[in-house]
Specification:
By secondary structure, the protein is mainly β. The chain contains four helices and 16 strands.
């Protein structure tokens, strides 16, 4: 889930031909990944042969379908730029995914996700740093198109401790594992599959829709136009702690549907998780940090060049190899059997252009999620989240000079202010694994602009899975 970078070669375009290219590239990467799996099979199988054999699932197929229709109401919009959110507009997205998993050897499994997408986000996924739909990608197409979203292998090395059970799920075979273990994941997958996870606010198909509610806005994680990358992640579970580290490909240019191969531009991510009990209920806190190394521009350099030449502000003209870093913490707390709370807070480099996710230098999120058991609807859920996003003085100056960010840019920013978002939803369990969700969002100062909004965004989501 990320959005379009206007200063990239793909700015403001519909690029269905790139989708075909991305599919071809994904197939090539998939073939390479399977070749690596084959090369690793003998030594890893020998290691796993010493582990006790369990009645694990050996093969699984899952699927999902999600439809989201979203509309904005009327709001104040005295002027607009290339990346502005429009009042009284509507868009829809549809996606369907087939998840195919196979056990390779003891404690190792491989997954392939085949997906069909169609539709566009509001204003082609532009207009707010906290964009209203996590089901909208930075590219869109009127007709359905096919993608290979994930192709990865996961190997677990059991160290010891109490045996635990993993229930069958999308991208997870039914299996058992020890509490103390090491897990390696390699291939094409999402950084968010491993890092910054949250049971209450991380899935646009099942809980919140706004990007800033799903992940920390300052987490500029490596991803292609659809939110996936190629890389490797390692997790070490030991007692109440988990330590994670990963290395991933960045896009070839900011906001591109193509990844940069060969680790020429890359991202490193580390995370520490601590699990504990609070008032007898499970809780956990995570601290996540990243360092992206790629060709990025300094915002002040772009403004200074524009003033010296009289040309429009263009951050692409001042790109050089440099780093963008960020850190955030998140909390997940089960307050009671049916009520959960969550929070995130983070910051990132304020004078470097955003590379993959969204335009934010500081963020704070708080929220609650309640199951419907209290009114006889145990599989329903109602939730609310509040988010405050802010940008640095350098980014304010850049936007006021006419610069464009990944998602935002009204052409000017004479009266900047924090972007404040309130989202609430009610998720109805209609039948078995079929859900209908009604969602409302209120975005104050969209794109950090006090001259625009507040914007109301209404949505309905239909989701089914097996």
């Amino acid at each position: 889930m990320s959005s379009r970078r206007p200063t990239s070669p793909f700015a403001g375009r519909q690029i269905p031909d790139r989708a075909d290219g991305a599919l071809a590239c994904a197939r090539a990467r998939g073939a390479a990944i399977w070749a690596v799996i084959g090369a690793l099979q003998s030594p890893l199988a020998a290691f796993a042969a010493e582990a006790p054999v369990t009645s694990d699932e050996s093969f699984a197929v899952h699927g999902q379908f999600t439809y989201v229709e979203q509309e904005t109401g009327s709001f104040n919009a005295p002027y607009r730029g290339a990346n502005s959110l429009s009042p009284d507009s509507g868009r829809e997205t549809i996606d369907a995914t087939l998840y195919v998993g196979r056990k390779l050897w003891q404690d190792a499994e491989a997954w392939v996700n085949i997906e069909v997408d169609q539709g566009f986000g509001l204003d082609n996924t532009l207009g707010a740093a906290g964009f209203p739909s996590g089901e909208a990608y930075k590219v869109g197409k009127t007709e359905p198109y096919l993608r290979l979203s994930r192709t990865f292998v996961r190997q677990t090395f059991n160290i010891g401790g109490t045996r635990e059970t993993a229930e069958p799920a999308q991208n997870q075979l039914a299996s058992s594992y020890s509490a103390d273990r090491v897990v390696l994941t390699a291939g094409k997958f999402g950084v968010g599959d491993v890092f910054d996870t949250n049971q209450f606010a991380h899935d646009p198909r099942g809980d919140f829709l706004n990007w800033s509610a799903l992940d920390a806005s300052t987490f500029d994680y490596a991803a292609d136009a659809w939110g996936y990358t190629v890389g490797v992640a390692a997790e070490w579970y030991t007692g109440p702690w988990t330590f994670r580290a990963g290395a991933f490909d960045l896009s070839d240019v900011p906001n591109s549907p193509r990844l940069e191969p060969g680790a020429d531009e890359f991202q490193l991510v580390v995370e520490v998780e601590r699990r504990f009990e609070l008032a007898g209920h499970p809780s956990r806190v995570l601290a996540t940090a990243y360092d992206s190394r790629g060709r990025m521009g300094l915002l002040t350099d772009a403004v200074n060049l524009s003033e010296a030449t009289g040309n429009p502000v263009d951050v692409a003209a001042v790109r050089h190899t440099r780093n963008r870093t960020g850190v955030h913490v998140s909390l997940e707390e089960q307050l009671s059997e049916d009520l959960g709370a969550f929070a995130r807070a983070g910051g990132a480099s304020g004078n470097v252009e955003v590379y993959e996710f969204t335009d934010a230098d500081r963020t704070l999120e708080l929220g609650l999620s309640l199951k419907g058991a209290r009114w006889g609807r145990a599989d329903d859920r109602v939730a609310i989240a509040g988010v405050v996003n802010e940008v640095s003085a350098a980014r304010q100056q850049y936007l006021d000079a006419g610069g464009l960010g990944l998602l935002i840019g009204d052409g000017r920013l004479p009266h900047p202010g924090p972007e404040r978002i309130l989202e609430t939803y009610y998720d109805f369990n209609v039948y078995s694994s079929v859900h209908v969700t009604l969602d409302y969002q209120r975005i104050v100062n969209p794109a950090y602009n006090r001259d625009r909004g507040p914007a109301s965004v209404f949505a309905i989501r239909l989701h089914a899975q097996f």
